[in-house]
Amino acid sequence: MEKKREIIGHIVQWMKDYAVQAHSNGFVVGISGGIDSAVVSALAAMTGFKTVCVTLPIHQAASHVGRAEEHIDWLKERYPHAESMDIDLTPAYEGFLQGLPVTSNTDRQQLTNANTRSRLRMTALYYVAGIHGLLVAGTGNKIEDFGVGFFTKYGDGGVDMSPIADLTKTEVYGLAEELGIVESIRVAPPTDGLFGDDRSDEDQMGASYPELEWAMEQAEAGARAEDFEGREREVFEIYDYRNRINRHKMEAIPVCKVPQHLRNK
Question: Starting from the edge strand earliest in sequence, which strands make up the sheet with 50-55, in order?
Answer without folding.
Answer: 82-86, 50-55, 26-30, 135-136
